[in-house]
Design brief:
Elements: E1 3-5, H1 22-35, E2 39-42, H2 47-60, E3 63-65, E4 75-77, E5 91-93, H3 98-101, E6 106-107, H4 110-121, E7 129-137, E8 146-152, H5 155-164, E9 166-167, E10 181-187, E11 208-212, E12 217-221, H6 226-229, H7 232-248, E13 251-253, E14 256-261, E15 267-273, H8 280-284, E16 294-299, E17 303-307, E18 313-316, E19 321-325, H9 335-340, E20 346-348, E21 351-352, E22 358-359, E23 393-397, E24 414-415, E25 418-422, E26 432-434, H10 438-446, E27 449-451, E28 463-465, H11 478-493, E29 500-504, H12 524-534, E30 540-543, E31 546-549, H13 561-568, H14 572-587, H15 595-609
Parallel strand pairs: 2-7, 4-20, 5-6, 5-11, 8-10, 10-12, 15-25, 25-29
Antiparallel strand pairs: 1-2, 3-4, 7-8, 7-9, 11-12, 13-17, 14-15, 14-16, 17-18, 18-24, 19-23, 20-23, 21-22, 26-29, 27-28, 30-31
Helix pairs in contact: 2-5, 10-11, 10-15, 14-15
Length: 610
Amino acid sequence: MSITQKNPTLLSPLSGSPIIHDCVQDWVNALVELMEPDSIHWCDGSAEEAAHLTRVLVEQGTLHPLNPDLRPNSYVARSEPSDVARVEARTYICSREEADAGPTNNWEDPELMREKLRELARGSMAGRTLYVVPFSLGPLGSPLARMGVQVTDSAYVALNLHIMVRVTEEVWGRIDSGANWVKCVHTVGAPLAPHQVDVAWPCNDTKYISHFPEGREIWSYGSAYGGNALLPKKAFALRIASVLAKEEGWLAEHMLLVKVTSPEQKSYNMVAAFPSACGKTNFAMMQPSLPGWKVETLGDDIAWLAPGKDGRLRAINPEAGFFGVAPGTGPGTNPVAMDMLWGNAIFTNVATTAEGDVWWEGQSPEAPEGLTDWKGDPFNPALGGHAAHPNSRFTVGLEQCSTLAPEWMDPEGVVVDAIIFGGRRSSTVPLVLEARDWNHGVFLGATIASEQTAAAEGEVGKVRRDPFAMLPFCGYNMGDYMGHWLDMGNTLRKTGRLPRIFQVNWFRKDDAGRFIWPGFGENSRVLEWMVNRLEGRVSATASPLGWLPTALNIDGLALSAEELEVLLHVDPLEHERELKEAATFLSTFGSRLPAGISAELESTRVRLRQ
């Protein structure tokens, strides 16, 4: 049903089209009346529609074709310099009660926010097309899948959604009321007057990304970039989904999902939570350095976890594509990602070469001559700065990943054997440890801190608390969220099928500021230790923080025993300070902090002082 209606004031169901429930039709009609688009395009997710959207964007100057001989069917987009990352300061959880949003979220009264957004949105699509995009997060028919509809006046957003989620008109037949789908409203906030020439990247200096958890609705105004505009991603799949998960007894998490196979051909599924731009995609596409080991990709960013019919925790990746950070991705760090970007990709805010290809820092040791930077200007390395924006991105379908596991489409999800928490810490945190039990593992997740990256607003390098890597993405009070994790442990204990929980830190540095651990494919050595722990084949050493490796396979590494000792060292004084900072952070949740987390905090404090 890839059909454009030119007279939206007379909008009615289209003859010969799938039956669209009245709740959707009425919702779209009300938005048309408010936003006043010139036309409406009902999306069907087809290849023909993607080609149409691409033509529109090339004509508009938003997309620039790359050299088809080097990168077929691929394009680069350059955003407005002010529209390059998530705008956390303008992201709101509009729950009815402020306490339900919690101290780590921005809150606004839902009625006041709706009134504000409606005034901003009034006439905001004048001169533009409103795209109606039906989508499923997760395989259609999966008990874990959820449906939504996004309206947007950005063809760039609609085209990216084609790649990122399952855009299909089959969704219409599965929406039977206003309660079983999520409403996603997006406008760039840049109406066009008659005969006004459009810009390549329309947006607005005023920005809001507002979530209404009780109403299952998201409104985004002013930004066309990333998770601000691709609402099925962080806004739905994490912020709204986390609320659904709390109510329905599952988990919506900022986690990669991989299948790890040992030389004995036994497979294990692992989820791992890292803050953005801390190596999730590299982990998800790991090429193990250890002979006989294999890592297959199930997802690189979001995982939904729920107890299955067998009582075990199972997981799916709700997405269908990658929206990866480009800088730092190269043949040496992630050859799988480089290979999958051969074509059919959209690159945003990267540099381009004189030959019509793409480039970013980390793709090669030296920048090629004749680069055009992410703003469209000639790049002069002598002047410093970045050729590609530090948060530049690529969008590409999952099916182009050569390491994609066949189970990625399993509607029941895969059994979760291990949960991993991690962050970017140059000191203090050991390379790897295992939690003492589920509640201790939840405490590790609750107290994760990481040195900030360019993927979000804020000072790069500053250490901030990021519980479960969900600080920007939890759609309700994070104290309640921690309690929900503890409750999930109680649910899984009834079947005796709890995954083991680990913590890792690939980023510890020596006194000279050099990374000690080689990382990337060598991280398979840490996975080997985890698997051996799952199988009960290796012992571990008790520490105040958890179980540390008694030994780790470093054969063939240019790593001394002394350096390994540094990587695994626990300094009681450092961790006293760390625990004090964690306690200060946790205290912000007041009475919403679960007693189980307070108990683990005190137990850790006691162990450190023994």
